[in-house]
Amino acid sequence: MSGEFTIDFLIHERRTRRGRRRIRQGEKPRTPNPPPGRVPRISRLMALAIRCDELIRSGEVTDYADIARLGHLTRARISQIANLTLLAPDIQEQILHLPPTTSGRDPIAERDIRPIAVIPDWDEQRQMFEVVMTPFRA
What we know:
6 helices; 2 strands; mainly alpha
């Protein structure tokens, strides 16, 4: 058999975690474009507060002091973050689903939310939260 033949197939290069290059078969996977902007800081802190609460409830850590040590934060700061879980569930949901910030400062700061979280009455929390959110919605 002395005939020539050609095999066509697609390959692409991919880097591993350690930076090595690997040749892979097929088209290069398309990466989705990230949404414009960034997640507001208060949304990230709310998610962190919920995660810390889950860690304590599951027994993975014993208390907030453990979380403070692991996160290289003070216990006071962890308490501030954990207090976000005292907000009414619907307020927590609204905070988690705030739209991305595309430029400048976040429209809602943590310092605006902290006084609301320490109020035990959820109806009063909702009223105060509406006052904070009014300029954001306009």
